[in-house]
Write a structure and sequence with these properties.
The protein has a domain of 128 residues. It is built from 1 helix and 39 strands. The chain starts with a strand and ends with a strand.
Length: 492
């Protein structure tokens, strides 16, 4: 394990391109280059070029470009997002990285400059400043297939570091394991995937582990329910999961010390699916059971300790947690299936507001707007709907006609849409397709589409071949990650 490399600066960017938990960033100068059709904005007067520092080398460059015009770029987007955002800092590892948690440490401005950080000229050498450091990083496993739905590769291991970038602990990933980081980055959970039936309940194939982000093991379970998600305070929701299409039994809630504090019992569903998910604040949990035989779903809203607030049954089957969105203190948005696909909304008190048919349009993903007024539904095969949140009225819809000019895709010309998010008046949709190489699925193409959220008009479309670029949203902060290059940028 080697020490990371850093670069930092303040750089105005042309467009923030966000898709679900995945964002693309295109800048007039920056990590990932420029959009093909973007208009170049006049430079800001306070722009300072970022300084790049490479550990182990005496290479440092810093250039003041205030009051200088930037050259116009040849490849640019057809319409620019209204918001202009700073790249706050960049952090470059010397190996691929799938995720990271950062802390801050205090140093003098002189020490920060020596480390390679571009500090404002107004700061005296003796003044104290705070600089980030990597507390933990996840090393991806390129020998395993990429997961577009999660925006990542499988993990190989996690590594914990002190403030001086010295490695203090390593945790290798087991065959059936996966790492989950809490929304605020304070906790790392090891969850174990559902194994083959003959291994269910055996040590190492059930339960899970909970760590602080400094590598301290808080507690673990070897044969209990499978860990599913972890809150910002270290609460864990786990499930008595079953292999195949056998429905989960109970869902169990644990406090940060590993004590069981609550339980939701299976409502009588034998064959189907089920899962659980904390809200962004970690104060609430949505639990869903889906009955494959009777084609119905049973949805629970609970507090973090398992206290049940309400339960709602719908005559639709659904795959939890991928097919719903929690709009905290407003309601639950979801999609389900019977003979055709439906979208629905439930208010925060558990009342069904509406249910509308959408036909058979592939896998559907719901997403609420920032203000909670409308719901967007995106289909995996290129359909998009904008629905009034209160009335359930379709405001606009569109069918995509994807024309990809740079690739002749062997797996089809339409990358499967599977992530969506809304920022201000823009709707960002991420699609991707992969190719099998030696039995391992590798990214073939990432496709980003940007729409006007009010009208559905296509504003921009860009193809990103042969790489996985993903977004980390954590505790109100946004990081852009190029997995293969191990380069991460804090942009919010």
């Amino acid at each position: 394990m080697s020490k990371p490399k850093y670069s930092e600066g303040i750089m105005k960017v042309d467009k923030i391109i966000v898709f679900g938990a995945v964002v693309m960033l295109t800048a007039t100068a920056g990590v990932f280059g420029a959009d093909r059709n973007a208009e170049t904005a006049p430079p800001k007067k306070d722009i300072i070029a970022r300084e790049t520092h490479q550990s182990g080398q005496n290479k440092t460059k810093q250039k003041d470009i205030a009051d200088k015009e930037k050259p116009e770029l040849p490849e640019q987007a057809s319409d620019r997002a209204k918001e202009v955002t700073d790249i706050i800092w960049e952090h470059e590892f010397d190996e691929p990285v799938g995720d990271a948690i950062f802390g801050e440490r205090g140093v003098t401005a002189a020490e920060a400059r020596k480390l390679g950080w571009a500090i404002s000229k107004d700061k005296k050498d003796s003044e104290n400043v705070k600089v980030p450091y990597a507390k933990m990083k996840v090393i991806p496993d390129f020998e395993r297939s990429v997961s577009f739905s999660e925006g990542k590769y499988s993990e190989k291991r996690i590594e914990f570091y002190d403030k001086n970038a010295n490695a203090i602990k390593t945790r290798e990933r087991g065959t059936f394991e996966q790492f989950v980081i809490s929304n605020n980055g304070k906790y790392v959970m090891v969850k174990r995937k559902i194994p083959y039936s003959n291994l269910l309940g055996e040590p190492g194939y059930s339960g899970g582990e909970l760590y602080r982000n400094d590598g301290t093991l808080l507690w673990k379970s070897e044969i209990g329910p499978h860990f599913i998600d972890v809150s910002n305070e270290g609460y864990v929701v786990a499930g008595e999961l079953m292999p195949g299409e056998e429905a989960p039994r109970d869902f169990v809630f644990y406090d940060p010390q590993g004590n069981e504090v609550g339980r939701i019992k299976n409502p009588g569903i034998e064959w189907g699916f089920g899962s659980a998910k904390f809200s962004r604040s970690g104060e609430y949990v949505i639990i869903g059971y889906s009955d494959l035989v009777e084609k119905k779903s049973v949805i629970y809203l609970c507090e973090k300790n398992g206290t049940k607030l309400w339960v709602k049954e719908l005559p639709l089957s659904s795959k939890f947690p991928f097919r719903f969105d929690i709009d905290e203190n407003i309601g639950v948005l979801g999609v389900g299936y019977s003979d055709i696909s439906y979208a629905y909304a439930i208010d925060w008190q558990g009342n069904l507001l509406w249910k509308i048919p959408l036909g058979n349009r592939g896998g559907l993903i719901p997403k609420a707007s920032d203000d909670g007024r409308v719901v967007y539904i995106v289909s995996g095969i290129g359909y998009i709907w904008c629905i009034d949140k209160e009335k359930g009225q379709i405001l606009w819809e569109r069918e995509e006609d994807l024309k990809l000019t740079s690739w002749d895709l062997p797996l089809g010309k339409i990358p499967y849409y599977h992530r969506v998010t809304v920022i201000n008046d823009r709707l960002y949709v991420w699609g991707g397709t992969a190719i099998s190489k030696g039995g391992v699925w590798k990214p073939l193409l990432v496709l980003l589409s940007v729409f006007d959220a009010e009208t559905g008009k296509l504003l921009h479309r860009k193809e990103y071949p042969n790489k996985l670029i993903t977004l980390i949203e954590r505790n109100g902060k946004v990081y852009l990650l190029n997995v293969e290059e191990g380069k991460i940028s804090k942009i919010k």
